[in-house]
Structure formats: C-alpha cells, structure tokens
Write a structure and sequence with these properties.
- This protein is α/β, with parallel strands linked by helices and 215 residues long.
- It has one domain: Rossmann fold (3-Layer(aba) Sandwich).
- The termini are far apart.
- The relative contact order is 0.19.
- Keywords: Transferase.
- InterPro entries: P-loop_NTPase, Sulfotransferase_dom.
- Belongs to the sulfotransferase 1 family.
- This is Sulfotransferase.
C-alpha cells in the first residue's frame, strides 16, 4: 500500500509519494563519493586534490548548504576583513574576494593569496581538506530553516543556467528530501532517517572537539 504524506510549506500544499523516485539530469549534476556536484565547473580529480590542499591557521571557511545565506555571509565577512567601506573592496567581484574552494572557475592560484584567506564551500565535512579536519583554520557554519531553503532553492534554480529547471514543486521537494540536489544532506531535526544531516553533524563534531577552530 502506498503511503502519501502531505506537506504545507510556504503556501505550497502537495503530496509526497514514498514510491516516487526521480533522478536529476546528468547534464547538470554528477555524483562523487556520495555527493552531488554541479557539472562542467569542477571535476572528480580536482575534488580529490583538495584532500592535500594546504590550510593556513589564519584561513576562514564559510560552510553552508546552498541557499542558506552564503552570499550574505560572504559580504559581511568581506567587509569585516577588508574594510570594504573604506577601500572600495565591495567593488571587487565576490568570487575574487571569497572564492569557492571546490569550484575554482577562474583557475586562481589559491596558494598565492595573502593571509588571511577567505573561502566559501558547500563541501561535506569528509571531503574538506585534511588539514581543515585536523582543526587548522576557522569554520563559520551557516544554517537556515530547511523549509525556507527548499523554497528559495526552487526559485533560484529557475534563474541559474547551471541548475536544472524543475517546474513542478512536488518533484523538486522529492529530490530535496532524497538528497538529490547540488549536495546531498538534509537536516535530521526536520526529517527522520534516512534523511540524516551528516554534513551538519560532522561540522558540529568539529566544533565540539575544538572551540578554537570554529565560530
């Protein structure tokens, strides 16, 4: 017997069918070590190379799930570190001020960046550089109500050429619940297993083990 669950999220009422399975298009995403990544702007080889990426103690990482306030936090952090209101840093492209670790689309030499370096990442904890997992640098983890993330991500996907456009909100949420998105983790305090928040839990363990390396 099929069990249907009803959800009301941000004004959207729809039914979730537990038997429904939908795979995202391989044109937009690929899987690597259990997670989804945007196609054409990074590679499995580059992702693997990040394991030995040299971390400095002064580095700062913003770790988020997509649509959880990443750009907002990037701008705040950039203003704090670079005093953009004084020297016009805000006129420099955000990707140059705080680049993405796993999506080095401009092929920048991160090792040549002056300290402190600022990075953004959607990487799961276990795919972050080894030195970062060994408590070097600082991590700012930004979380957001997953219901808001879902709706924001749905509308965002309609305007981003690198994301598959899913017009049916029901299908979009099915993929979201199944972890079939740009990265595949969910919030355990909203959805029971198998919708576990491995990403969030691992970053939380980093904070519990060493208060000096996370904020």
């Amino acid at each position: 017997m099929s069990i249907n669950l009803c959800f009301l999220i941000a004004g959207y009422l729809f039914v979730r069918d537990n038997k429904l399975t939908m795979e995202p298009s391989k044109e937009y995403l690929f899987t690597h070590k259990g997670f989804y990544f945007a196609a054409n702007i990074t590679t499995p080889e580059y992702l693997d190379s990040l394991e030995t990426f040299e971390i400095r103690d002064s580095d700062v990482f913003i770790a988020t799930y997509p649509k959880s306030g990443t750009v907002w936090t990037q701008n705040i952090l950039s203003l704090i570190f670079h005093e953009g209101h004084r020297n016009g840093t805000e006129n420099i492209d955000l990707m140059d001020r705080i680049p993405w670790l796993e999506y080095n689309t401009k092929h920048m030499d991160y090792s040549a960046f002056p300290s402190p370096r600022l990075f953004a990442t959607h990487l799961p904890y276990y795919l972050t550089p080894r030195d970062l997992r060994n408590k070097r640098a600082r991590v700012i983890y930004v979380t957001r109500n997953p219901k808001d993330v879902l709706v924001s991500y749905f509308h965002f996907s309609k305007i981003m050429v690198t994301l598959e456009k899913v017009s049916d909100f029901n299908i979009f949420m099915e993929r979201f619940l199944a972890g079939k998105g740009k990265v595949s983790f969910l919030y355990a305090f909203y959805f029971p297993p198998p919708f576990t928040a491995s990403f969030l839990r691992h970053y939380w363990r980093l904070e519990k083990h060493d208060d000096s390396s996370t904020e």
